[in-house]
Amino acid sequence: MVYYIASTTAPVNIATLKYWGKRDKALNLPTNSSISVTLSQDDLRTLTSAATGPELRQDKLWLNGKEESLASERTQQCLKELRTLRKQLEDEDSSLPKFSMWGLHIVSQNNFPTAAGLASSAAGFAALVVAIARLYQLPQSMSELSEIARQGSGSACRSLFGGYVAWEMGKEADGSDSKAVEISPMEHWPQLKAAILVVNASKKDTSSTSGMQLTVKTSELFQERVKTVVPQRFIHMKEAIENKNWSRFSELTMKDSNSFHATCLDSYPPIFYMNDTSKKIVRLCHAINDFYGTYVVAYTFDAGPNAVLYYLQENEAKLFAFIYKLFDKVPGWETKFSEQDLQKFLEVYE
Ligand code: PMV
């Protein structure tokens, strides 16, 4: 048997300016542009291998060791587009093997809980599209491939790039200009770190697609968000990243997380993604920043209760000493904070 195989990894990305709302559900076209930070490959990532060969008749997928269906419309759309691009190459060069006619076997492994509000679909679709594009030896750029990944899961388009990434919403009805572009590579601002506080690792109640639809249909606050708030924030956040302006970046990140969750609450009936522990984390972050009189930490929450905290490397000990004391059992941070400082902090926090 002859097999051709290609593999890739795609990391999770966490939006600092949130995508929430689709102007076209089938094409996954957003109502606003968004910005994210892609985590390092050593942290949360999907590893995907794609194989094809003349004897493979069907497309099959194994996710975390279990066979899963490839039947969803979104996955089918990605496979169709990738095959069409491969077919074009085969039509131009008849010596190429006919990959576009053969089945695909895809094996994917996440190193974190799937569908637990940790952006697993973003890393999953990004890895799927890039692995197949490599297998098919497609000449398309990452930005062009991001248009395909976008159709699998909107936020997936941003996971094709490392570092700081913008998803430009575009204007075209066919989505041909709705793609991810790099703002800066990770090396531009390596001091920026992310920590994930897993509040609840179970599957989320309201999927992002149905949540978005409800918000777009029913929230008046949402109209204001997409018309005036996000377009300005997009410019300012890009500038904050380019200038490594940490305090500006932190403020905008927290405000945008709050604004997104406010539109969820303004949906009718309301959608609650954050729980009491999430709110405790928000309060804690503000108290830490107040205590130090400067931005030490910025929180952001996606469509679930888990928190992503951004901070600068130099402030790691300052931050985790508090987290350890208040949430217990974070190993490694036990000795980093004096009791006296903790007492002073607790007076402010409680
Ligand atoms: O890509 P989706 O359909 O899973 O939606 C992602 C939505 C948020 O995570 C809440 C925001 C974002 O920009 O990633």
TrEMBL record:
Entries under InterPro entries matching the protein: GHMP_kinase_C_sf, Mev_decarb, Mev_diP_decarb, MVD-like_N, Mvd1_C, Ribosomal_Su5_D2-typ_SF, Ribsml_uS5_D2-typ_fold_subgr
Diphosphomevalonate decarboxylase-like N-terminal domain segment(s): 10-180
Highest taxon, organism lineage: Eukaryota
Catalysis: reaction(s): (R)-5-diphosphomevalonate + ATP = isopentenyl diphosphate + ADP + phosphate + CO2
Cellular component per GO, a single term: cytosol
Signal peptide: none
GO biological process, one term: sterol biosynthetic process
Keyword Repeat: no
EC number: 4.1.1.33
Enzyme class: lyase
Protein name stated in the entry: Diphosphomevalonate decarboxylase
Source organism of this protein record: Zygosaccharomyces mellis
